[in-house]
Specification:
The complex is a heterodimer of chains A (520) and B (336). Chain A is of the alpha+beta class. Chain A is built from 15 helices and 17 strands. In chain A, a hairpin with a 3-residue loop joins strand 8 (201-207) and strand 9. Chain B is mostly helical and 336 residues long. Chain B folds into 2 domains: 14-75, no CATH class; 89-335, Orthogonal Bundle (MetI-like fold), CATH 1.10.3720.
Chain lengths: 520, 336
Amino acid sequence: MLKTHKELKKGGVTLRKLFLLILSLMLVVTFGSKSFALSKKSYIIAGTTDKITSLDPAKAYEYFSDNILQNIMGGLVKYIPGTTKIIPDMAKSWKISKDGTVYTFKLKKNLKFSNGDPINAKVFAYSIKRVIRLKQNPAFLLADVVKDAEALNNNTLKITLKYSYAPFISILAFTISYPVDPKVYPANKVYSGTPVASGPYMVKKLVRGQEIELVRNPNYYGKKAKTPIILIKIYREANNLYMALLSGDIDLAYRTLLPQQLQQIQKNKKFKTYTGDSPFIREVVFNVKAKPFDNAKLRRALSYAVNRTQISKEIFKGQVTPLFTLIPAGMWGHKNVMPHYSIKKAKRMLKALGYSKAKPLSITLWYSPSHYGSTESDVALMIKNQLEKTGLVKCKVKYAEWATYVDYWTKGVMGMFLLGWYPDYFDPDDYMWPFLQTSASPGMGSFFSDKAIDKLLKKARSTSSIKKRTRLYYRAQRLMVKKAPYIPLFQGQQHVVAKPEIKGILMDPVQIFRYYLLSK
Amino acid sequence: MKLKTYILTRILLSIPMILIILTIVFFVLRVLPGNPVLAMLGPKAPPEIIHAMEHQMGLDKPIIVQYFIYLSHIAVGNFGTSTYTSLPVLQELVQKFPATFELTFYSMIIAVSIGIFFGSYAAYNFGKPADILARVYSIFVYSFPVFWFGIMLQLIFGVWLHWLPVSGRSSPFMIPNHIYTGIYSIDALLNGQFDIFVDAVRHLILPSVTLGVVISSIFVRMVRSNVLLALSSQYVIAARARGESERKILFKHALKNAMPPILTIMGLQFALLLAGAILTETTFSWPGIGNYLITRISYRDFPAIQGAIVFFAFFVAFISILVDIINAWIDPRIRY
């Protein structure tokens, strides 16, 4: 064997050469070209864990798709960046009839899509009617209120409503109302090709689940985007996004790092963190038709036992704000009305209802493990512990994947469960009507109904004065406290982590992330 | 049986296999709770839109009717339209497949190289420290969870050393000018873009090493035991008696004769490799079919889930047929 081993070693010379060749190739590849063909200032690379479903305004109905549309398209009206104030966008001005049902818009002249096709009143009328006809998920926002849309001439658009509806202007600022090119977007079908733009950017390339490349729209009528190219890289999980950020693969991360990752990176001097309020809210929903949650006193008792501050501090590291009503802070109409944490009151109320240590209240709290991020199980467990701290409650925790979860709550299977809400339009109506109005609340799984609240909400919808509407919403919120169909938990925050050289990051109260303001 | 007849028989036999997989996936998806329309439209959708969508997707028909409609579509190569993106599933799969293929192919090269090198070296040095080391290695890496190993490599080579990218298939704006195969490393060379080739390989290193190393443990053990068996056979003793060099004995006689069972295992490992690719793709945000499948499962995108699994089944069937043919070619003793 010894002799032959030598022979093997002889032969090993070629093996060694091969090994060295592979090693040198690997070195070339590892330390090889890292340079890009473009100058560094001409592009910004953003990272996200969000996914795109559709970029057709008639179908888009989740945050990221809408946010991309807000950067590549425009509507009749828009929000002033950094505020909740609405101003004309493609419209020059508008008039509302005395009864609040007819809106007449004068459009700006010479508006064009990115492909050169004109944007006029006919295009707007076509787009609104198309949304209603296609009956996609967000269609009800227009279909429920719009009776007709017609072009009086090239620059005048008339929209007739079924009834006076105060938040209508806010809906016109939402992506559902953006005009689409009739030559490209079919009248009877959702369009899944590359979007035709009318905003500061246009989509150059979209690889689903991988990346989106935005380039300046040469036909945009407004101020041109600050950076010629924005590349948004899509990551599957927060860990991937975090790694990409730390390794320098991306310039900024927007939605969504885990709370502990965010806390960690805030200490890292190589990055700057931006934080702002988000209109996103989280709540516990009670199915008021299911026992034992059909008792308003019991629901109120449980809401006293929930310690929102502990949830915010311990799970979210202070990155969310406790919320005591459904309308988020920062929005007119907001009033903190729900009871604050008081275990004494919770105990007293539960005892009054006949529960004791020997005969505790037995309930189940449901959650969905991935839809709201990996912190969700922690939230559920913390609420369970808080409720059980009263000594009068035995709380089981159960979970279901999102598709099952949606099915369960619409069928009324779950009596008490965690849910979240992101608004369609920035108006208190969108935080009250879907939750509390008799016809809308089954969609939320609460099946709540109260005639007095219904009346107030209907009146608030048709009243144009914000002062009067604010008063109406205050009253509705006070009535809600007595019935406690929900336990509002917290209001989200939006966070962006970026390299220090990235400028123009704006934490918008309506949470429109404006890529067109970014620069290096 | 002639080779042609054998191949034809193998192809025909794979049809019931695919049909069984398709049937199981179809019914399991429908038995599980969760309405795909609700998952797609979310909590804000009004009931009339939900019903309209269910009707449009044919979900209001009896399951058995849905099944036969699906079968008739698959028979003509129609995988349906994704409920999540409204795009044809086949088009999406064809777009994603090159990424998965590229990853699994390079991982297989790494796994096989490590397996042949360590395995034959360990067998040759039976009972010596090198052998023990190879055995410990194979047990050690076999117990690695793919995602954990991937994250470790990302941390070391991406975050700390900044040597290699941690995710994706390419750097920004570094995609081959013309896509011929969808396999970036090949397309870059076909386009003569060496910088893009280097970039594509840099992106491939961490995910394919992750998957390749984890899978290599099986190959190390397989090669070791097969070469060990071959080294103790009479033809090796005869070769030694003839005075042939040990290198020749190891590589020409022992390893070559040990190859057919290794190749069979290699074919089977492709199925395991695809399963591993799902985790690797998730860890490295690799835009392949694995990533696609995981995303679509959470959206109850029935056509996409069914399509991806059937696509995997076709691929595994194809590889196993291919391996049988190569086996026959390597070892003429194999008869059908």
